[in-house]
């Protein structure tokens, strides 16, 4: 499920471009309907950001991020100006509540605002608030389950400002974890029996955070974030070879480093990463009724590091693969397949946002 925190944002109009602003880059994805009736990756782009432009999910330098988005939009060859963006989960308060099923839409809005006061530690004047009716309550047919979401207005406004400064039109504001989950759902239905009955663990390993999301069928049964990411490896490389952080990041991705860097830095990092994955699974097993994971999927900028899949398999003894959110989709001839294989694991959120154009 995805949410629109849309009090300040115009209505949605497809086609749509998904834009993911992370600590290290701006990522852009545009999908379309293929001639066969499925989905097709039309274009994408990734534009790096300097350190300090985005800190803890907040945009500190709107002009720099906007310029990076403008470059990505041009690089991809987009014409569509409507964009879907997302807030980090840490910037959004979500809560499931039960309300009477017979309320009109206006009555529902009033009731949601009343309930929100109990869960939001800010004045409602300071937040962008939205809600989504999930469906009838399993326990009481006279009630409906409603998902409430709220974020400080400045967090929403920063992303709106970035899009507008880049000459684009913000149409949807989502939540990063929900967007990634939409992309995961697309992957899950490509599995045998559409993944029914399988406990799937998605690990998104970004610059600063390792996130785990465990799903069974189409339900999330566990989520957790911890402080660990690829910036640790980049900093080690920068210190060892006297490089700037940006230079080290570029050389890490291309492998353009002196002989011995893999043994000295890459292998220890992949082992540490595999250890963090194992610890996350242990937390999952001890804090839920579940005692197994059927498949591990790796995403994020670190997912394609050489040796990481083998290291995770060796430690967890669970089948592990690098995920591509475009599995089962057609790909435009304008997209370079080899580069896409390297970039796809970083595009989970941007892909999930681009999929909003197909939402009912």
From TrEMBL:
NCBIfam families: pilM (TIGR01175). This is Pilus assembly protein PilM. Residues 16-184 form the SHS2 domain. It comes from Piscinibacterium candidicorallinum. It comes from the Bacteria. Pfam families: PilM_2. InterPro entries: ATPase_NBD, FtsA/MreB, PilM, SHS2_FtsA.
């Amino acid at each position: 499920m995805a949410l629109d925190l849309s009090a300040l944002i115009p209505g949605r109009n497809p086609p749509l471009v998904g834009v993911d602003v992370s600590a290290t880059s701006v990522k852009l994805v545009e999908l379309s309907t293929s001639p066969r009736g499925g989905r097709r990756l039309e274009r994408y782009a990734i534009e790096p950001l300097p350190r300090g432009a985005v800190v803890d999910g907040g945009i500190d330098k709107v002009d720099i991020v906007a310029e990076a988005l403008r470059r990505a939009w041009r690089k991809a060859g987009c014409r569509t100006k409507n964009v879907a963006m997302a807030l980090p989960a840490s910037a959004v308060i979500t809560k499931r509540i039960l309300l009477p099923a017979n309320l009109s839409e206006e009555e529902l809005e009033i009731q949601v605002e009343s309930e929100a006061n109990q869960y939001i530690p800010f004045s409602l004047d300071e937040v962008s608030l939205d809600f989504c009716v999930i469906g009838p309550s399993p326990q009481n047919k006279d009630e409906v389950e409603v998902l409430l979401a709220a974020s400080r207005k400045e967090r929403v406004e920063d992303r709106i400002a970035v899009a507008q400064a880049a000459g684009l039109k913000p149409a949807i504001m989502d939540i990063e974890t929900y967007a990634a989950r939409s992309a995961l759902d697309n992957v899950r239905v490509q599995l045998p029996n559409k993944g029914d009955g399988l406990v799937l663990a998605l690990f998104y390993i970004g610059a600063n955070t390792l996130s785990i999301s465990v799903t069974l069928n189409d339900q999330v049964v566990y989520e957790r974030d911890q402080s660990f990411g690829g910036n640790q490896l980049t900093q080690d490389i920068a210190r060892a070879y006297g490089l700037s952080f940006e230079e080290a990041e570029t050389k890490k991705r291309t492998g353009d480093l002196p002989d011995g860097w893999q043994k000295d830095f890459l292998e220890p990092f992949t082992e540490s990463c595999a250890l963090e994955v194992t610890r996350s699974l242990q937390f999952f097993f001890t804090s839920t009724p579940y005692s197994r994971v059927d498949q591990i999927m790796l995403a994020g900028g670190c997912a394609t590091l050489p040796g990481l899949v083998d290291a995770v398999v060796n430690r967890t003894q669970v089948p592990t693969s690098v995920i591509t959110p475009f599995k089962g989709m057609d790909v435009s001839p304008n997209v370079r397949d080899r580069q896409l294989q390297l970039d796809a694991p970083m595009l989970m959120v941007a892909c999930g946002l681009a999929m909003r154009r197909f939402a009912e």
